Amino acid sequence: MPSLRVALAQVNPTVGDLEGNARLILENVELAREAGADLVAFPELTLTGYPPEDLLLKPTFVKDNLERLGRIADRVRGITAVVGFVDAAADLYNAAAVIHDGEVAGVYHKAYLPNYGVFDEDRYFRRGTEQPLFVVAGVTVGLSICEDIWYPTGPAAIQAQAGAEVLVNINASPYHAGKREHRERMLATRAVDSGAVVCYVNAVGGQDELIFDGASLVVEPTGRILARGRQFEEDLVVADLDAEAIFRHRLHDPRSRKGPLARADGEARVFRVVLSEGSRPAADPPLGPGPGWQARKPPLPAHEPPPVLEGVAEIYAALVLGTRDYVRKNGFQKVVIGLSGGIDSSLVAAIAADALGPENVVGVSLPSRYTSPGSVEDARDLAERLGLRLLTLSIEPSFQALLDTLGETFRGTEPGVAEENLQARLRGTIIMALANKFHYLALTAGNKSEVATGYATLYGADTTGGLSPIKDVPKTMVYRLAEYRNSLSPVIPEAVLAKEPSAELKPDQRDTDTLPPYPVLDPILQAYVEEDRPVEEIVAMGHPEETVRRIAAMVNRSEFKRRQTPPGLKVTARAFGRDRRLPITNRYPQ
Fold first, then answer.
1. Which of 225, 232, 159 is nearest to 187 (CA)?
2. At what angle do helices 475-488 and 311-329 cross, to 10 degrees?
């Protein structure tokens, strides 16, 4: 049976590590060649890592990336490789190099440059206008990069109508909950509309706030998924594509014969580059295999695509990967976490232990006069269950010393938030001292509900550190994630799940003293922060007007705090930071 064997190298590059990324590419080229692949495709900007951001403004970085690409090309033989890199001509391009027989045989430039959400590609790149087709082992292949395939009349449509039987799309597509399902529906639509096999390779790994989930796909012209890469893990996805079946499918679907060639705009130019014809006669038309074109290798054994993670299991796996890569790629081995005995720090500790191993996580219990004995015990119980080292350091002497220092200045005032926050700031100071002394990375435990409303102490333990793993996780989801983690093994004490949330900075304090209950708060925040709904519309959804206006005001007043907190891992459709950018000085009421 005629076939093209394609490998999708779902790899985890590191931004700026040109040497390491080049080595990763060559290692996977060899694995793909050993698997008998005719073509191996790597994710978007694999060579530089994604997103390289203002590294692209350094001419030496661009030059070094091109030099490494040349070295890679010298060593790629016996297989065709598609490698994401930064091309430089009159300007910079987000590009895919087609490497064959020791040279760069062609280059594709990304046509659609995203400039929304976490993307900022118009800042760096010029859009491409050419649509090269590459003949690999007798099969016509079209290339595109990430955003290009999301447009129904974009490069994929142009290439398919010009004869492409296989559409290879290379990606660095950041994760958020629900995106995989949306992406799979889109890719199935592109495959059906183009009458071609879509090969979608995605990066995997963490980069600052972003997480790349892998889940690469091979989708047949019918929309059926032929192969799928694992989520949140490196993988090499290998599939045999039946060119004869593609041709037969097109004979039964005459849509491509109707009307003019689809174009994204009037600039697109289509041309073919023949890399290897295999045994297909040269006179054969690009849409169909000739009678002499035979398979060159035994077929792959039948296998089902791996099962997919969904819901809280998917989010938890994303947080573990994002935490592991942030810590490791930034040169740290161990992390330190303040363990309050509450749900947030317990979940962060579990994520860190799963990401790094419990031997690389240090917990610190920092009780004051207002810390309940139950919270101290819950922190100890959690540490024992996870196998963490736990330090217990009372902040009471330091707290009293600060109260004494400020006593004369504060005389005649009522004790309040200023005194409460001294405790949080002392905890932050001690955690950072441990981090400095022992080269730990400090993890903070603020969740999205607290970050949104400013229910956190600036420069305190909940806002000071190197990474905030659950910064984009609403409080109600924190509980669901904790329950999911306990379903794997019961590491978070039941007392932590059952207790009412409290900062424990004054007697009998509860979060509900300041905030509405989290099941009430989180839907309001989703509507206001993630969906940009006005107050009146949120009230019309059934929420109390006074509560909505109070929460909106809290969100607006807290922008200055969010700007000074550690980066957090993006898992929702709209996170603070890269996604949501509002001015600190801002008088717009809602």
1. 225
2. 90
pTM of the complete model: 0.92
Task: Give the H/E segment covering residue 92.
Answer: strand 92-100
Quote the pLDDT of residue 1: 41
Inter-residue contact 4 to 39 (CB < 8 Å): yes
- Is there a single domain that holds both residue 257 and residue 361? no
Written as six digits, the tokens of 560 are: 């200055």
Full domain range(s) for residue 320: 311-562
Going by C-alpha positions, the residue among 525, 514, 512, 520 that lies closest to residue 543 is 520
pLDDT on residue 418: 94
Q: Express each pLDDT in 47-58 by its tens digit.
A: 999 999 999 999
Do strands 92-100 and 217-219 pair parallel, antiparallel, or not at all (unpaired)? Answer: unpaired
Contact 168, 141 (CB under 8 A): yes
**Bridge partners of 440?**
334
CATH number of the domain within which 42 lies: 3.60.110.10
Instruction: Please provide residue 67's backbone torsions phi and psi, each rounded to the nearest 5 degrees.
Output: -65, -40
Q: Across residues 232-243, what is the average pLDDT?
A: 94
**What is the reported pLDDT for 579?**
87
- 267 and 348 housed in the same domain: no
For residue 218, which of 245, 247, 196 has the smallest C-alpha distance? 196
3-state SS, residue 55: helix
Residue count of the chain: 590
Q: Is residue 304 part of a domain?
A: no
3-state SS, residue 538? helix
- The DSSP line for 240-255 is EE-HHHHHHHHHT-GG
Residue 206, classified by CB atoms within 10 Å of its CB into exposed (0-12), middle (13-18) or buried (19+), is buried
Q: Which two tokens stand for residue 286?
A: 């690009």
Distance CA 284, CA 243 (A): 13
Cα Rg of the chain (Å, integer):
27
Q: How far is CA 125 from CA 48, 112, 158, 341, 452, in A?
A: 14, 10, 22, 48, 33
* In a shared domain, residues 334 and 243: no
Going by C-beta distance under 8 Å and a sequence separation of 6 or more, which residues neighbour residue 179?
Answer: 173, 213, 573
Q: Which residues are registered as beta bridge partners of 228?
A: 217
Catalytic residue positions, numbered: 44, 110, 146
Residue 262 has pLDDT above 60, yes or no: no
Write out the E strands in 230-359: 235-241, 269-274, 334-338
What does 166-218 look like in DSSP terms, one character per residue? EEEEEE--B--TTHHHHHHHHHHHHHHHHTSEEEEEE-EEEETTEEEEB--EE
Q: What is the dihedral of CA 484, 490, 492, 497, to 10 degrees?
A: 70
CA–CA separation, 312 and 45 (whole Å): 30
Residue 227 included in any domain: yes
Residues 76-130: pLDDT tens digits?
A: 999 999 999 999 988 999 999 999 999 999 999 999 999 988 999 999 999 999 9
Structure tokens at 452: 């949104």
Which CATH number belongs to the domain containing residue 466 in this structure?
A: 3.40.50.620
Under DSSP, the state recorded for 527 is I
